[in-house]
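re: ur question from the group chat, yeah i did fold both. here u go
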Amino acid sequence: MNNNFELSESMNPFFLIGVIGAVVLHFLFLTLIHRVKGGKYWGERKSDKAITFKTDGGEFLLTGAKDLLYWRKFRKDQWRKIPFDNIKKLSISRSCESAKLKEFLLGGWNIWDFSRTYTDVTNGLAIQIELHDGDPLILTQMKQYEQREWMLGQMMHDFSLKILAKLELYKEIEEEGEKELQRFQAIFHHYHAMT
């Protein structure tokens, strides 16, 4: 018995390369459509009297001199003043929207997609400052597409996402949201330690 591995004449090496290429493209496609979008944070600057930071929600200035939070949208000149007494807490707000059009364009549609259980969705998450009076102030927002398949398709899809998670190419929106919430809580705690 010969223990050496040899390609049989019927096994074409280009077929093997094609299969491996298809698997790599499948994982690349999943990585692209399931990435967390948004949640931009451009760092902070600290001084003895203030902390400034920028996110996709705008520009923020925490100043100890007047116990105020200043906020403005990008490219808008007017700063909004929020007294610290008006701030209740930092929190996470969640949303879920149907993604039927995206589902149709990315993977086609079948009879199971008429059921709410198997319709793809876009999960949204916002980190916000809750105020005692008025609407919450959004620090940052994120979105992530979630595919929902029927039976065996869902098991294979979940298995693919677990492989991507092990390779650190996929992150759950909840996990990313908790990290961002902790980042903003640390900024506000640092500010309170300054004053």
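okk and heres the other one u asked abt
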Amino acid sequence: MDGNDAPVRKLRLEAVEAALREVSAATAAFEDSPEGKEVLRALQAAHAELSRIGSGDDVREIVSAERSLMEHEREHSVTSRAQADFLDRGIKEMDVALNLIDVVRSDPERYRKMTAAAFSQPRNRIQGLPKDDVRHVLKGHRKDLGGILEALPFGMGSFRRARSRLLEVRRANLRQADQLYADLQRQALGL
């Protein structure tokens, strides 16, 4: 490239800036519309309900809520095959976690037998507790939500803030679920 490309690059940057201004204006117009206000109210209601669920002490309810959100995203928000595959895998992982939570709750002896050999090495434990599928799923999904949060587009005003808050409460709920599950593990293992 030579110095003559500078005016072309400047024109391209100006076009990008103009397009971003259009997006911001359209977003602001939608936010002020009755439909936009309804979407914002729905996001706020979802945040409040997720906060309520996360403040409880039922790990199964928290994980079930996250699974339901993933199903909803799968049905209503998928724009590519990769997204669909990602959500399908996540839903299956949540099912595995829910099944194992049920085992830990209802059959501690079976859980002790399942984990005795498989998680005997210190590297397979977190604070002395088995680093089983539930712990992996919760940690991995929390990390995935963090990536989505970081990738949210800027300039979306109150929608971005509401969506960010929703992702943040989901991450907080998964942290809470991890702590509650650790308590269940301790009970099941007699620790």
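fwiw on the second one: The chain has a mean pLDDT of 88. The helical segments are 6-32, 34-54, 59-76, 81-106, 108-118, 133-151, 157-189. idk if thats what u expected
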